[in-house]
Design a protein that fits this description.
This protein is mostly helical. It has 4 helices and no strands. α3 runs antiparallel to α4. The longest helix has about 35 residues. The protein is elongated.
Length: about 140
């Protein structure tokens, strides 16, 4: 006689965890693509952004463009790893999203509304990546 053991098929908890991983991967990819576009526009055309002369963290807008372009490319690469549910991608995703928050905070005077939107999106990405435990994903 053989014993049957219950399998742990798709439970609601696992479905929620997979949904959060897909959400964070898609949102990180969207944030990365938007960062790439923002970086390209800042590198090519400085007139798109405001310039604030008395800001403490004043950088050249072309420099900010390169920073956003680099972070955008890194976010897209990491999001591809998140679609595979890789642990390294979750750790890197939290790090990249944190750097995106910092970069958007520091460039807040140049494009204020968009910077706040990107900070909120990155906050949701960090939450989604940290809410899922490894055994659920």
């Amino acid at each position: 006689m053989t014993a049957t053991h219950p399998t742990h098929g798709h439970t609601a908890k696992r479905g929620f965890a997979v949904g959060l991983m897909v959400f964070s991967a898609v949102m990180l990819m969207v944030a990365g693509i938007l960062g790439i576009l923002r970086g390209i526009s800042a590198i090519a055309e400085d007139d798109v952004f405001l310039s604030t002369p008395n800001y403490v963290f004043a950088f050249d807008l072309t420099g900010w463009g390169w920073i956003h372009l680099f972070l955008g490319v890194a976010a897209v690469i990491v999001s591809m790893g998140l679609f595979q549910a890789s642990t390294w991608a979750r750790v890197a995703g939290v790090g990249i999203a944190g750097l995106v928050i910092i970069a958007n905070f520091l460039s807040l005077p140049s494009y204020p509304v968009w910077s706040v939107v990107m900070i909120a999106i990155s906050g949701f990405i960090i939450w989604a990546l940290c809410a899922v435990r490894k055994d659920e994903a």
